[in-house]
Amino acid sequence: MSTLVEPVRVHTVEGGARSERDDLLVTEEPLEIRLGFGPLDDRKEMRLSITMRTPGHDDDLVRGFLFTEGVIMEPDQLIRVVPCLSVKDEEVGNVMRAEIDPEVAIDPERWQRNFYTTSSCGVCGKSSIEAVQVARHAAMAPWGSIDTNIITALPERMRAAQTVFRHTGGIHAAALFNREGDLLCLREDVGRHNAVDKVIGASLFDGHGASDGILLVSGRAGFELVQKCVVAGIPLMVAIGAPSSLAVQLARKHGLTLIGFLRDQRFNCYAP
Predict the structure, then answer these.
(1) Which residues share a beta bridge with 183?
(2) CA nearest 197: which of 63, 49, 56?
(3) What is the pLDDT of residue 5?
(4) Active-site annotation holds for 84
């Protein structure tokens, strides 16, 4: 069974003095996502994607990934997500199968993706730029006025819940808050897009209320993260870091309120 952190012995140099000590590193392992689809009497399997992730909440990751990539349009189109047991010993715990409702049409050629996606980018595995443009499932309700006190309090509330970051300092986080700034769901992962997928997967299937929530991410607001936010219908996204130009364009196109550079008591609002 994989753990979230792994111990390592390191040599530390400080002020010219060298010492040896124990340290903890965040775990990074591949997760293969497989689809089971087709009629009940003639099920087929497709290997959809491999992503480098931190083990834990893998079912949330798969659910969020399938939804934000447009493989499923509604939560009830997914029957279940289970670990694959008939795999090699070294693959145990790192292969998940998602069973899709027989009524959902799956075209394997449509989901052309490289089988490997780096932990730093969820979009670089797409085979063409057209595949990046995932359609919005429903109209997004505008957020309205921004409460500065609530927004500036979010980072500290997220950090207080980041257990793995506290021990390693090397992991991304995504957190879903309600309008009052209460933490609803937090996920940590070595991949920023995985952390977001985990939050969205949990919110869709556990009733956290993403459509009236705030998504806070610990790093920058790249295009792929804004896209996931738009698809999930989350009306307000906040990033500790900077947004990209394409992320801002996408946010403005869909009416997503996008905030970046949230630090101390200041932030920039880039959209709508």
Answers:
(1) 177
(2) 63
(3) 73
(4) no
